[in-house]
């Protein structure tokens, strides 16, 4: 039996977030765009973000994916996808508070007290640092080195494109501890406080995200700050990336819905040659294709999320959802911009902002090409059979 309906709880949560986005976030958009036009950083200010999080928390909305024993809502992956889709309806990047990186739950007792709990509470900010100037898609090629020295490790190397790297109080750093073994047993994850000595520099980008490059020069890290097992860091990194890949296209889906709504509205009212452009087949086809792709994306995202919530192997489905979401969201925003003509190209409407931000989806957390590589490899090696999406 296939049941496409949401539970009552899921519907209530989705509607609550939808209202929150419409009432609290969307009214901040114009001001954020104005600030950006004047050269200020894009997105919400720290005060706005803090205020929104407090407001949500006062309604009990906090720690969406955080287990209940840590005070969170402990929601399942499908509900999380629904929430991300609603948040994606605004271009202002916002996450509810009360979250920590999934791999921080591998912390030992002391690390939990020092890192996990304060991160959940919002007292500490983390960043995830694996990419290096010479190792992006090929993450196994990282060269940041950690050498044992008594009861500490000495880290040397550079990380790049690290989201939140400028603001983070500590970094989850992946470094080579045994070059002979490489990624398979020779990479370790370290919890590295900023005041242990690493530095960061922002990287300007075309979108809201301003990642950072991090430099580690003889940074001493106590052995007590090894996260998980020594030598097992690469598996942790893949777990970090793999757990929430479906959330990226889930967010893009919300953006596409908003954009398509805008295109429908505009095409009804914009007249050329004596008739609304909505009467033209060229415009109707763009609307129809976008709607078809939005619905296909929804199913791919929810299927991947469902596999995650069932504890089943979701990697193949997540790669498909991420690839399709990245490619189609970029096609949809381009069509919506086209339907708006010159207005779409201006900064008076949020379309160009969505356009710039959605482009990132095809690059980070595995590029389009890397998702295709994974999907093809799964099939060619026989890990996944054609047509085995439903079991
Ligand atoms: C805004 C932003 C935020 C980011 N946040 C983080 C973060 O928080 N933490 C972190 O560790 N990293 C982060 N990254 C890094 C991101 O994950 C990498 O940029 C991404 O994995 C691609 O690596 P690369 O940029 O080195 O490109 P490369 O790996 O050099 O790839 C260049 C091009 O070659 C293609 N290519 C590579 N290998 C193959 C192949 N085998 N077959 C076919 N084509 C191939 C790629 O698809 C791409 O088109 C972020 C990046 C950006 C832009």
Automatic annotation (TrEMBL):
Residues 231-379 form the Acyl-CoA dehydrogenase/oxidase C-terminal domain. Residues 7-123 form the Acyl-CoA dehydrogenase/oxidase N-terminal domain. One of its GO terms (molecular function) is acyl-CoA dehydrogenase activity. Its cofactor is FAD. GO terms for cellular component: cytoplasm. Residues 127-219 form the Acyl-CoA oxidase/dehydrogenase middle domain. InterPro entries: Acyl-CoA_dehydrogenase (IPR050741), Acyl-CoA_DH_CS (IPR006089), Acyl-CoA_Oxase/DH_mid-dom (IPR006091), Acyl-CoA_Oxase/DH_mid-dom_sf (IPR046373), AcylCo_DH-like_C (IPR036250), AcylCo_DH/oxidase_C (IPR009075), AcylCoA_DH/ox_N (IPR013786), AcylCoA_DH/ox_N_sf (IPR037069). Keywords: FAD, Flavoprotein, Oxidoreductase. SUPFAM superfamilies: Acyl-CoA dehydrogenase C-terminal domain-like (SSF47203), Acyl-CoA dehydrogenase NM domain-like (SSF56645). Pfam families: Acyl-CoA_dh_1 (PF00441), Acyl-CoA_dh_M (PF02770), Acyl-CoA_dh_N (PF02771). One of its GO terms (biological process) is fatty acid beta-oxidation using acyl-CoA dehydrogenase. Belongs to the acyl-CoA dehydrogenase family. This is Medium-chain specific acyl-CoA dehydrogenase, mitochondrial. It comes from Nocardiopsis alba. The lineage of its organism: Bacteria, Bacillati, Actinomycetota, Actinomycetes, Streptosporangiales.
């Amino acid at each position: 039996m296939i049941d496409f309906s949401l539970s009552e709880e899921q519907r209530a949560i989705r509607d609550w977030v939808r209202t929150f986005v419409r009432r609290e976030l969307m009214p901040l958009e114009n001001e954020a765009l104005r600030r950006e036009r004047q050269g200020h950083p894009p997105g919400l200010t720290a005060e706005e973000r803090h205020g929104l999080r407090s407001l949500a928390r006062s309604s009990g909305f906090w720690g969406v994916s955080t287990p209940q024993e840590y005070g969170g809502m402990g929601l399942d992956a499908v509900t999380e996808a629904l929430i991300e889709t609603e948040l994606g309806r605004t271009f202002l990047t916002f996450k509810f508070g009360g979250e920590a990186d999934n791999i921080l739950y591998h912390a030992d007792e002391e690390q939990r007290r020092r890192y996990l709990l304060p991160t959940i509470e919002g007292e500490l900010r983390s960043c995830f640092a694996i990419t290096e100037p010479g190792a992006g898609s090929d993450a196994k090629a990282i060269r940041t080195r950690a050498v044992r020295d008594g009861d500490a490790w000495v880290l040397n190397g550079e990380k790049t494109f690290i989201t939140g790297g400028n603001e983070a109080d500590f970094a989850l750093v992946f470094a080579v501890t045994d070059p002979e073994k490489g990624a398979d047993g020779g990479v370790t994850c370290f919890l590295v406080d900023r005041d242990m000595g690493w530095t960061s520099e922002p990287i300007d980008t075309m979108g809201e995200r301003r990642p950072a490059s991090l430099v580690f020069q003889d940074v001493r890290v106590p052995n007590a700050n090894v996260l998980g097992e020594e030598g097992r860091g690469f598996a942790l990194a893949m777990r970090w990336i793999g757990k929430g890949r479906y959330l990226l296209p889930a967010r893009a889906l919300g953006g596409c819905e908003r954009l398509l709504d805008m295109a429908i509205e505009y095409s009804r009212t914009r007249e050329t040659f004596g008739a609304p452009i909505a009467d033209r087949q060229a415009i109707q086809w763009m609307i129809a294709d976008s709607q078809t792709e939005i619905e296909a994306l929804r199913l791919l995202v929810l299927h991947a999320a469902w596999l995650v919530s069932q504890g089943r192997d979701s990697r193949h489905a997540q790669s498909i959802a991420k690839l399709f979401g990245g490619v189609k969201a970029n096609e949809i925003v381009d069509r919506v911009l086209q339907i708006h003509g010159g207005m779409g190209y201006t900064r008076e409407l949020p379309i160009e902002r969505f356009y710039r931000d959605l482009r990132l989806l095809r690059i980070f957390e595995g590029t389009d090409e890397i998702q295709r590589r994974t999907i093809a490899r799964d099939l060619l090696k026989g890990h996944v059979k054609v047509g085995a999406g439903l079991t």
